[in-house]
Amino acid sequence: MMPLPPEEFELLSAYLDNALTTRQRQALEARLAASPELRAQLDDLRAVRAMLRAAPALKPPRDFRLDPARYARRAWWSRLDILRLTSALSAAAAVLLLALGIVLSGTPSAPSDGIALQATDLSTPTTTMRMPAPTPTVPMPAAAPFMATVAPLAANATEMFTATPEVAMEAARLMATEAAPEGVSAAATETPDMPEQAQVAPETSLEPVARLLILLGALLLIIGGVLFFIGTFRARL
Amino acid sequence: MSEHQAQSDDLTLVAQAQRGDVEAFNALVLRYQTAMYNLAFRLLDDADLAADATQDAFIAAFQHLQQFRGSNFRAWLARIVTNTCYDALRRRRRAPLSLEALSAERADGADQPALISDADDSPEQLAMRRALSDAIQACLNQLPLSFRTVAILSDVQDYSYDEIALALNLSLGTVKSRLSRARQKLRDCLRAVQELFPSARRLLEQEDETP
């Protein structure tokens, strides 16, 4: 039997699998009818396919099903990394404490206070301009500078963490909820009809508390940062 | 079950498995494990390697199930199985078994998986089918890997050209020409097998009904 050119063989092979266009098929069938040689080639090819189809099926040596206990997707809370969770919580607590401390120390004598200065350094120039002169009659605008001074600090604090978006968002959310009521209450102490004494008294008693809160907050930030670092490092290993 | 029905049934199970349902995925494993193991064995000609490759492929399929977007799960699965087999072959080439170990394994038949057989098969029939399986495997082993894969998918596993193109990421034209060349290369080897196995010839005569 003469070896066929590859294109001829391809035609015959595709013909076996019904993979020719109608026109190709009709043309080939006409040639098959005229050529016993081509028919013999086709029979040969058909025998190859039949032999492969006759290959006995083998029994898998084992069951390949997956163990549900091992491959089931676990609930979200059991997948939470405890270290990351702790660090995120401590970051939130730290930001809360820092905010509280700054707000408490940011009462009327703020510009002369060292901590308040530190806080104003972090804020934008326009808010520091407004800091010394909060309008006593309207409580809400008074709250705005406090929020403005605290927010950048919070942003800095979260940067220290190389924080995940969730932590930053959590911090921002805490800032929004914490700063506003504090600011309002701080502004409330400045109402014009309040006696001079009442303004001084909370300031002197709150200052050590504020320092303590800020110290605590900073400590928590460091602990949280270390935990987060360990958590991230461990996760990469 | 028609092919279309089987496919839509697959997709229902795939959707459940994509939501993390391992049992739904296991239903797919049950449906395809024999076909996939046969594909792996015909590619690798090694029972243990084929079992490992099949298991790895099913695990990989479950883990990457989110990436399945198509409509033909069987072809997607075949792609993963072929890839794990190619990896196994690459590893084996890098760390070949010693000749003694290989021939010892062949001699005691540990390498050969059992055939799927009817209960009423006589021992003679079983032995004949075993020999036929080995002879066909020996012919397949002579083919270059890319031709072997196409020949197995098409003629042993009955995949359409479209499915092979999908599974191997080839054009239809490439599938057509590779299959044609694979059959051409197998011709002499398989003709010799055919002469050795008269019962296989009976199967051939039944095949004559097709175009």
Keyword list:
heterodimer; A: 237 residues; rod-shaped; B: 211 residues; mainly alpha; Rna Polymerase Sigma Factor, Chain: A; 2 domains
Structure explained in plain terms:
The complex is a heterodimer of chains A (237) and B (211). In chain A, 74% of the residues lie in helices and 0% in strands. Chain A has eleven helices and no strands. The radius of gyration of chain A is 39 Å and the shape is rod-shaped. Chain A starts with 5 loop residues before the first helix and ends with a helix. The model of chain A is unreliable at 109-164 and 178-202 (pLDDT under 50). Chain B is mainly alpha-helical. Chain B is 76% helix and 0% strand. Classes of the chains: A mainly alpha (237), B mainly alpha (211). The interface between A and B is large, with 39 and 59 residues.
Q: How would the global form of chain A be characterised?
A: rod-shaped
Q: Helix- and strand-based class of chain A?
A: mainly alpha
What about the largest sheet of chain B? none
The coarse overall form of chain B would be globular
Q: Quote the distance from N terminus to C terminus of chain A.
A: 65 Å
> What is the percentage of strand-forming residues of chain A?
under 5%
